[in-house]
Amino acid sequence: MGATRLRGFFFIRSILFNYNISQSSTFSTSSVMAKSKYEYVKTFEQDDKILPNTWIVVRLDGKNFTRFCEKHHLEKPNDKRALHLMSKCATVVMQEFREICLAYGQSDEYSFIFRKDTEIYNRRASKILTNVNSLFSSSYVFFWNIYFGDKKLMYPPTFDGRIVLYPSDTNLRDYLNWRQADVHVNNLYNTTFWMLVLKQSLTNSEAEERLRGTLASHKNEILFSEFNINYNNEPIMFRKGTTLLRKKIHCPPPDGKLKQVIMPLHSDMFSDAFWEEHHEILGCTSAPIYTGPIPDTLTELSNLNLRDVSGEFPETDPSPTKHERQSPAPLPLDELP
Question: What is d(CA 23, CA 77) in angstroms, rounded to the nearest whole number?
Answer without folding.
Answer: 73
